[in-house]
Amino acid sequence: MLPFIGFWGHAAVAFAYAALAIWLLHKYGTRNRQQVMLIAAMALTALWGIISTVAGPLSLAALCAESARNLAWLCFMFFLLRSGEGREQPRTINMIYGVLLVVLLFQPVNDTAVAIFGNASNGADLATQSAMTMRMIYAVGALVVVHNLYTVSAPEARWGISLPMAALAAMWTYDLNLYTISYLTSAPSDELVQTRGFATAVLAPVFVMAAKRNSNWGIRLSRSVAFQSVSLVAIGVYMLGMVVLATALELVGGTYVRLAQISLIFGMSLAALLILPSGRFKSWLRVVIAKNFFQHRYDYRSEWMRFADTIGFPSKEAAPFYERVVKSLADIFDSPGGLLLVPDDEGRLTLQARWNWATADVPANCVTSQTMPFFESTGHIVSMDEVRAGTDERCDPRAVPQWLYDEPHAWAVVPLVHFGKLAGLVILARPRLPRALDWEDLDMLRVVGRQLASYLAEAASQQALAESQQFEQFNRRFAFVAHDIKNLVSQLSILARNAERHADKPEFRADMIDTLRSSVDKMNELLARLSQHNKSRHSLPVVIDIGEAVMKAVHDKRLIYPIDAQLKPGLFATADPARVETIIGHLVQNAIEATLDGSPVRINCRKQGNDVAVNITDTGVGMTEAFISNHLFKPFESTKEGGFGIGAYEARALAVSMGGQLRVESRVGKGTTFTLLLPIADEKDNQISMEEAA
Fold first, then answer.
1. What is the spatial distance between Cα 238 and Cα 255, in angstroms, rounded to a whole number?
2. Could you tell me the pTM of the whole model?
3. Per-residue pLDDT tens for 433-470?
4. If residue 61 lies in a helix (H) or strand (E), which one and from where to where?
5. What's the farthest any 2 CA atoms get from each other in the chain?
6. What pLDDT is recorded for position 534?
7. Residue 260, pLDDT score
8. Spatial distance between the Cα atoms of 603 and 674, rounded to a whole number of angstroms
9. Cα separations in angstroms, 240 against 77, 130, 144
10. 416: helix, coil or strand?
11. DSSP secondary-structure letter at 411?
12. What is the E.C. number (predicted)?
């Protein structure tokens, strides 16, 4: 039964793939290499089916045809990788496919050795095991290549290559199982050998659907996948070499063969553990891949994304900004450390940050008088190796300080120029794998340097803005303080005039002492408000008796100016007593200064809807509607000579901060009424406050 299945299964392969080759030849012709190799792979697969049908699937001719079939499919994948979008990306991928090519070339040799030494049991066993091993290695490598080919393809092209890649993966997975079982049992599995033809024939319709879906496949090679692929191949070759050497020792024989094998495996494993994780080996491998697999040294997309993540999206554990500037540049060139020099307030370059370079001896005066002019005018990137050797004709030796000549690890000096101004200077340490700067390095340094210069310029602008905001905050505080001092001066001036007439009265002297003491306390408070440590935080609003708060606010002013306060008891509002006192103080002082004939200022309190209203009324000069609308509540706007225009502005701001309002009604020559509205307290809060007062 099995020979019958094997015969018709391989015959189906011959018929199906021959028909596919003829159909693809009429469909595609010979327009490009990957289509030609696809047709050739179909034809050789059909040839393998024919030979397996006629001579048997395990004959020497069938095994050689199988190697030819695999070689054709390998070439198809190679040309597919080189086609479309990938044509401009990779230079060559011979290193990845080279191992598989060598394996395929050795397979006919092994198969011939099996046929030759078929009568010698020892030779036959060795050749058979070697042949099975080579086919297992190829199957594993082919599956890795299929996976990588799909992974690195352009996203829009994966839809077109998914079916052929799945068919090839299925074919080589079957081969891997066949040869693994044969190797372990030291004999080919008849069931798997005979049913292999039907398993391969079933994949033919998949290739038909793939050809109808898309005739052109574009591939873009990913650097990270290339690095992983080369690493995987290198590890596989290393392990294969270790197995071959161990087998050779066993063939040589001897008393201490087991000890020699153990020592060999242990030594090579230890060497791999020491070499593979090292940064120098990884750097060397990346350089080799970049030189042999790609037209360009850098994967600009991934480098730019890493640069943006480093400099623009710092985490909580990230280094400070200036260290990230150095790191973002050093990471691109695999530099282990760097320094950043930036201009100080006097315009001289000073050391601002170190990144992984604690041993660099940077003097306080770290540049010469020619450093900034040279780099600003030229933007020249200096290779310290060329400067030391005297081969850099563009560099002015006077622009490079002596300590850089003496520092053996200094590799490159990169100016960060922003609109003709030097924003900084980065000194990169020598990479783990020493190399000279080429044109692509210089282009990358210029582009990244310009971007970093803009970041440094933005940081300098933000720092200047922060300092300006600090001065603005101080000026704002000073303006409020100056206004309050003016009010105190006016109050003390009136007190001094009244002292000439009433100094002999004990009551006046007592009130004068209270007023002076209160004025001193307010002046000390004003000075404290100017301090940078003063946060100027207000207390939270509480339930207060508005009448008591108003009387406390005008207590000192009633000693020097007539104030008629008609306050209704039992009115409670939710407010901050200190802020209420400040508001009333500003408004009463404005009313006093606006009343030229000495008429009293009237204050009354009442309930108005859901608010408590405090009215401050004077019979002074009044204000126009235009002034009220456009200037009254703006800082530094005042109708009074020598006025600061701060009182009304601060009063309204404080009222709003407590959830209240400040309204005004005024007529020129008739007077002005300011109305302070504060939220009325709830009945429960009123009852609690009255009980606490009792």
1. 27
2. 0.42
3. 777 887 778 888 888 889 999 989 888 888 777 767 76
4. helix 60-82
5. 143
6. 47
7. 67
8. 10
9. 24, 12, 16
10. strand
11. E
12. 2.7.13.3
Q: Residues 581-604: pLDDT tens digits?
A: 889 988 988 888 888 888 899 999
Q: CA-CA distance, 548 to 567, in Å (whole number)?
A: 9
- Distance, in Å, from the CA atom of 333 to the CA atom of 259, rounded to the nearest integer, reads 45
Please identify which residue in the block is written with the tokens 């038909």.
208
Of 55, 293, 73, the C-alpha closest to 168 is 73
The Cα 671–Cα 656 span in angstroms is 24
Residue given tokens 């690493």 in the structure block: 231
Q: Is residue 486 packed enough to be buried (19+ CB in 10 Å), middle (13-18) or exposed (0-12)?
A: middle
Is the pLDDT reported for residue 495 higher than 80?
no
Cα atoms in the Cβ-side hemisphere of radius 13 Å centred on 693 = 13
pLDDT band at residue 677 using 50, 70 and 90 as cut-offs: very high
Exposure string over 298-320, b if 16+ CB within 10 A, otherwise e: bbeeebeeebeebbeeeeeeebe
Residue 503 phi/psi, 5° resolution?
Answer: -65, -25
Beginning with the edge strand found earlier in the chain, give each strand of the sheet holding 563-566 in spatial order: 563-566, 601-608, 611-618, 671-679, 661-667
Cα dihedral angle (148, 153, 159, 162), rounded to 10 degrees?
Answer: -20
Q: Are strands 563-566 and 601-608 parallel, antiparallel or unpaired?
A: parallel
| DSSP 8-state assignment for residue 682 | P
Could you give phi then psi for residue 126, rounded to 5 degrees? -65, -45
Element (H, E) at 115: helix 94-116
Q: With CA atoms as reference, report the closest residue to 338 among 454, 426, 229.
A: 426
Q: 75 pLDDT exceeds 70?
A: yes
Identity of the residue numbered 74: L
From residue 419, alpha-carbon distances to 443, 483, 530 in Å are: 18, 44, 39
- Please name every residue paired with 603 in a beta bridge, in sequence order, or none if there are none: 565, 616
Phi, psi of 679, deg, nearest 5:
-60, 130
pLDDT of residue 483: 65
Tokens 């020129």 belong to: 668
3-class DSSP string for 166-228: HHHHHHHHHHHHHHHHHHHHCCCCHHHHHHHHHHHHCCHHHHHHHHHHCCCCCECCCHHHHHH
**Element of type H or E holding 469:** helix 439-502
| Token representation of residue 668 | 């020129």
Q: How many CA atoms are closer than 13 Å to the CA of 324, on its beta-carbon side?
A: 19
Those residues whose C-beta lies under 8 Å from the C-beta of residue 135, and which sit 6 or more positions away, are: 107, 175, 179
Tell me which amino acid residue 205 is: P
How deeply is 281 buried, as exposed, middle or buried, from its count of CB atoms within 10 A (0-12, 13-18, 19+)? middle
- Please check whether residue 662 is in contact with residue 676, taking contact to mean a CB–CB distance below 8 angstroms: yes
Give 91-121 pLDDT, tens digit per residue: 445 566 788 888 888 888 878 877 776 554 4
